[in-house]
Specification:
The complex is a heterodimer of chains A (470) and B (572). Chain A contains 18 helices and 24 strands. With 470 residues, chain A is of the alpha/beta class. Chain A folds into 2 domains: 179 residues, Rossmann fold (3-Layer(aba) Sandwich), CATH 3.40.50; 168 residues, Dimethylsulfoxide Reductase, domain 2 (3-Layer(aba) Sandwich), CATH 3.40.228.10. In chain A, the strands form 6 sheets. A 9-stranded mixed β-sheet of chain A has the order 7-6-22-21-20-8-9-18-19. In chain A, strands 13-12-11-16-17 form a 5-stranded parallel β-sheet, sandwiched between helices. A 3-stranded antiparallel β-sheet of chain A has the order 1-2-5. In chain A, strand 12, helix 8 and strand 13 form a beta-alpha-beta unit. In chain A, helix 3 runs parallel beside helix 18. The termini of chain A are far apart. In chain A, 58% of the residues are buried. Chain B is an alpha/beta fold. In chain B, the strands form 5 sheets. In chain B, strands 1, 2, 3, 4, 5, 19, 20, 21 and 22 form a 9-stranded mixed β-sheet that branches. A 5-stranded parallel β-sheet of chain B has the order 6-7-8-23-24. The longest helix of chain B is centred in the last third of the chain and has 18 residues. Chain B is globular. The two termini of chain B are 36 Å apart. The chains are: A alpha/beta (470), B alpha/beta (572). Chains A and B meet through helix 4, strand 10, helix 5, helix 13 and strand 24 of A and helix 1, helix 2, helix 3, helix 4 and helix 11 of B.
Chain lengths: 470, 572
């Protein structure tokens, strides 16, 4: 990697900003802002209060490459103006009123609307989305349905021994990454939370910890680990089952299990038992291989069993910065984490029935609203085929495959840069992400857009808006 | 808007009104002694009228609740009610969704609830849930008992620093008072261990529960906080733990009270779980009389019970090691949540059954506590919801308290295990609560213990938080008609909150946003600033969140009720 000179050409700094990329939600970023006018308070070149109106983020300190590039290059392929698809199938720019009315009309007249996404927007936006969903009897679902959904199913089967990331930093002397490559997917995870930082009981940081990667691939995370356990692809369940058997004092009958010699498994279990405080981080590599949620079941059971000998906890490596937030939000609002169907006037949650992919492949939905997500890029083709046949409303900041499917496009703003909002980190720590700069003049905040849709749908249905709303 | 509630039978223990037939008048959300002839008249002739309920200890909002809901959809499916009129859909039995929590408390005639455990790091989450719960005023108690800074100050005996720390943290996280959960045990759980008794030090920190309780109690009185320390002592749920409980109460004995409203310097929570004798689950038996006698002899103590209701429920507490033990015991799925520098916590589903000897004796111990503590101002109605049972069972607990006949029937019909007769003295106690005592344990006394002067009673100037029940105290025989008592207390004829009708004939008719009660201590600004500067290096090193992003922004507390306190000046 070529040496890059530090960015010196900026006017203001905004400190303690939160990164809106992965589930790490690093809240120590410094945005370097050029141009614009301070709306708030400036002290020694640092914006201590308020934001920079009309400024641009030209540099980001402390962030990883993923976060920094998302924040700095956010104008690339940016959606700026609302658009509606005309009869020739072309997206045509229009004014906000027309676009919002069109979207509201679609939602109000829908029989089986689905509101999907939410993981890259704020809890405040979700409030309005849920109210709208309850009003029209929609299905609300988020990206968990295609990523950590099986993990949540496993949590419902087996339990949920978790902790906040600071516990790992201060106490952990053994760290296990399994089914994920944190060095690439959550680049600051090791540096800020788990492996490298010097914690209260781990004064020497990395030297006080043993890092284990359990992954069929020899990933970048595996390269910097002390131990790499490269079990066979789809051998997860068998491998963890063997570990659990050894932990419970059983003799393994096979010499090699999932490609790992039994002595290695026995030694590893011994190490894990001896650890003072262990942390296990699992990712989609575990969630989405052969046995799906059963892999997580057994990993959770392993962690529970380990607690008879020492202290172990786990954390799922959540992807989007607020994917956990949506699950938490839905759980406290309506009792279920994702895939919640309001069609009958009360919430239903039934995996395989009320999840977005199942609904789409059964061709049930007649209107689809996608907010802060990209089903066009991520959904299986069978699901996308149905999306192409029904009206799709998109609320997003960037042009993507979903825009090609969309019939109404409503350009939102970038949470944690252009708009403030609450998010939940992968470990459930809530963070109020502050605003640093103003949004593009023609775009609107997600919160405003969804609220506006709600108001217009209420008007169409002849319902008075709630006064007691927040 | 003016109202007059005509001819109700009023129980208002704070103002010595005991079953008088009288009118209650209120105007603009406050109780008044006179209204104009235009006042709207509501006829409640011969019906039971009380101030709205005050729940002193309930887990209704926060991260543990959400973990419970996330991992127990089977519980959410148990309490589903479709949306209707002004209400949204309800879900959940032991861990209801936020809207359901508000509606269900309103239907029982409650107006104020104390959320009993808020981890400061995740306080924003608790406040988000408080905002989602309608119709209640909610006071969250932040956890301080296993906080690293607290433990350091306690070890070094720096009470002034601790007081400044607490006062500042209450402002930061918008909390009401000091909660301690298994002091030092939560920290030990960071290493998969626990402490046993009050003199077993936390690993590495080398500080004992005795020191932490003493220090926080002193800091509490130094600040003159409206509530005393709220203590969940060590050894919860262990056979033979009553010794620890009594010792914990003794610690606070010498500390003088600094509050014009409350009487106590320590509130012992869910005392039922802490009144066990024996050495293991086989010879486990009640020690309620030992604990109750100590409370009877010492008026500086209040307690709430945590009555077992014999339901399938979800236990959740910041007492992490206890929950792991419970998981080992019942084998049901275990959730745990350790919070850096602050606390542990755990969750396990639990099925309390009358067929089980231990559960039945636990049930008996709770009732014994209610019946053996003489002064109803010292013991409050709770089920430690949802730990011993969900809060919607309060009416049933009331029916047990008012009916010795029902209790005997349960024992004799074997609705509870026969061990109750051998291992507790419940069958020999024939005390029955009257309506005045019920009003005391469910509203007047908890309000007093929290230093609330504007609620929990019907005196002039109090908030018009009023409950009217379809029970005619002069006609009913609670001893025989326990079913009518349970039904009546569960379905208020009217619930008023700040003078607004929220419930009519057991149905929710209006929704108001909830409000957050928090304590704003003034007078220590310089000390607080010094403390923050002092702890900042540790904060930055050991937390994973920046100080600027740690606090609860005003955004999360849209409807605050700040209780202003002048540090150290409340005592009169």
């Amino acid at each position: 990697m070529a040496y890059e000179k530090p960015i010196a050409d900026y006017d203001y700094k905004v400190e303690n900003c939160t990164c809106a990329f992965c589930g790490c939600n690093c809240d120590d970023l410094v945005y370097l802002v050029k141009g614009g006018e301070i709306k708030g308070e400036l002290k020694d070149g640092i914006v201590v209060n308020g934001y920079v109106d009309g400024g641009h983020v030209v540099g980001v300190r402390h962030a990883c490459r993923l976060g920094a590039s998302k924040i700095m290059e956010d104008m690339d392929q940016r959606l700026l103006v609302p658009m509606v698809r005309d009869e020739n199938g072309n997206l045509v720019e229009t004014d906000w009123n027309t676009a919002l009315d069109k979207a509201a009309e679609l939602i109000a007249n829908a029989v089986r609307p689905v509101f999907y996404g939410w993981s890259e927007t704020s809890i405040e936006t979700m409030h309005y989305g849920l109210e709208l969903g309850e009003l029209v009897g929609a299905v609300l679902d988020n990206q968990a349905t295609i990523c950590h959904g099986p993990s949540l199913q496993a949590v419902q089967n087996a339990g949920y021994p978790v902790m906040t990331l600071g516990e790992v930093k201060n106490r952990a002397d053994m760290i296990v990454y399994t089914g994920n490559n944190a060095m690439n997917s959550h680049p600051r995870h090791l540096g800020r939370y788990s492996t490298f930082p010097r914690g209260y009981f781990r004064k020497r940081g990395r030297f006080d910890r043993t890092v284990v990667t359990m992954d069929p691939r020899y990933t970048d995370t595996a390269k910097m680990s002390d131990i790499w356990v490269g079990f066979e692809q789809n051998g997860d369940y068998e491998f963890y089952n063997a570990m659990r058997a050894v932990l419970r004092g059983k003799k393994l009958e096979k010499d090699i299990i999932s490609g790992i010699p039994k002595e290695d498994i026995e030694n590893l279990v011994e190490e894990m038992k001896k650890a003072q405080f262990g942390a296990l981080f699992f990712g989609l590599g575990l969630t989405h291989t052969l046995s799906k949620q059963r892999n997580i079941d057994i990993a959770i059971n392993l962690v529970q069993d380990l607690n008879k000998f020492s202290k172990w906890n786990l954390i799922p490596m959540r992807g989007h910065f607020n994917v956990n937030g949506f699950n938490i939000f839905m759980a406290f609002e309506q009792g279920f984490p994702y895939g919640v169907d309001f069609a009958r006037g009360y919430p239903r949650y039934m995996n395989g029935e009320t999840n977005t992919i199942d609904l789409l492949t059964r061709e049930e939905p007649d209107v689809f609203m996608v907010i802060a997500a990209d089903p066009g890029a991520h959904f299986p083709s069978g699901a996308n085929r149905h999306l192409a046949n029904i009206p799709v409303i998109q609320i997003d900041i960037h042009w993507g495959p979903s825009t090609e499917l969309a019939d109404v496009v409503l350009p939102g703003s970038f949470i944690a840069v252009e708009a403030a909002g609450t998010s939940y980190r992968m470990d459930g720590v809530p963070i109020y992400m502050k605003q640093a700069i103003s949004r593009p003049e023609t775009a609107r905040d997600d919160e405003w857009i969804v609220n506006e849709l709600l108001k217009r749908v209420q008007r169409i249905k002849g319902i008075k808006p709630k006064v007691a709303g927040k | 808007m003016e109202y007059i509630l005509k001819n109700g039978i009023v129980y208002d223990p704070t103002n010595d009104v005991e079953g008088e037939k009288k009118d209650v008048m209120f105007k603009d959300g406050k109780i008044v002694d006179d209204v104009s002839p235009n006042a709207k008249e509501i006829d409640v002739t011969d019906k039971l009228v009380m101030a709205a309920g005050v729940d002193p200890h309930s887990h209704i909002a926060g991260p543990k609740l959400v973990v419970g809901r996330l991992y127990r959809p089977e519980d959410s499916r148990r309490g589903i009610v479709p949306k209707k009129g002004v209400t949204r859909a309800e879900t959940g039995f032991s861990i209801p969704s936020c809207p359901a929590t508000g509606y269900r408390y309103s239907r029982m005639g409650y107006g104020t609830v104390v959320e009993a455990a808020m981890p400061p790091l995740e306080a924003k989450h608790t406040h988000e849930e408080i905002n989602t719960i309608p119709n209640l005023d909610i006071a969250p108690l932040p956890l301080f008992g296993n906080n690293w800074f607290t433990m350091e100050y306690a070890k070094e005996g720096k009470i002034d620093d601790l007081a400044a720390f607490v006062s500042y943290w209450l402002k930061l996280v918008k909390g009401y008072g000091i909660k301690l959960v298994n002091p030092c045990g939560g920290e030990a759980w960071g290493w998969g261990m626990n402490v046993h008794g009050i003199d077993d030090p936390a690993p590495y920190f080398d500080v004992t529960a005795r020191e932490v309780i003493t220090a926080l109690a002193k800091a509490n009185e130094k600040l003159a906080l409206p509530h005393s320390i709220h203590l969940h002592p060590n050894d919860l749920g262990h056979p033979g733990n009553y010794g620890t409980t009594v010792e914990s109460m003794k610690i606070v004995k010498g500390i003088s009270k600094n509050s014009p409203v409350r009487n106590q310097t320590v509130h012992m929570t869910h005392i039922q779980y802490h009144s066990y004798a024996g050495t293991n689950w086989r010879d486990f038996e009640s020690a309620a009389s030992d604990v109750a006698n100590f409370i009877n002899d010492n008026d500086y103590i209040t307690c709430d019970v945590g009555q077992i209701t014999l339901d399938e429920t979800t236990t959740m507490t910041a007492d992490g090691p206890m929950e792991f033990d419970l998981h080992q015991l019942n084998g049901l799925k275990w959730a745990n949540k350790d919070i850096e520098l602050e606390t542990a916590s755990g969750i396990v589903p639990f099925i309390y059954s009358g067929r089980n000897s231990v559960h039945s004796v636990q049930w008996a111990i709770g009732l014994e506590m209610f019946l053996l503590v003489h002064n109803p101002w010292q013991i409050f109605l709770t089920t430690d919801s949802p730990n011993a049972g969900p809060f919607i069972r309060y009416p049933r607990v009331i029916s047990w308290l008012m009916s010795n006949k029902r209790r005997t029937e349960m024992i004799e019909n074997r609705e509870v295990h026969k061990a109750v007769e051998k291992k507790s003295m419940l069958a020999t106690i024939d005390r029955e609560y009257d309506f005045n005592e019920i009003a005391t344990i469910s509203r007047a006394a908890p309000a007093k213990a929290y230093g609330f002067t504007d609620r929990g009673h019907l005196g002039i100037g109090a908030n018009a938080d009023i409950a009217v029940y379809d029970i005619k105290p002069n006609d009913i025989d609670p001893s025989a008609e326990h079913e009518a008592i349970e039904k009546g207390f569960g379905n208020a004829t009217y619930t008023f909150k700040d003078g607004k009708i929220l419930v009519k004939d057991g149905e929710i008719v209006d929704i108001v946003p909830s409000r957050t009660l928090w304590t704003n201590v003034s007078g220590l600004e310089a000390e607080e600033e010094a403390i923050v500067e002092k702890i900042m290096p540790s904060f930055n090193k050991y937390y994973t969140i920046k100080f600027e992003n740690y606090k609860v922004h005003d955004h999360f507390v849209p409807n605050p009720i700040a209780v202003n306190v002048q540090a150290g000046k409340a005592g009169k």
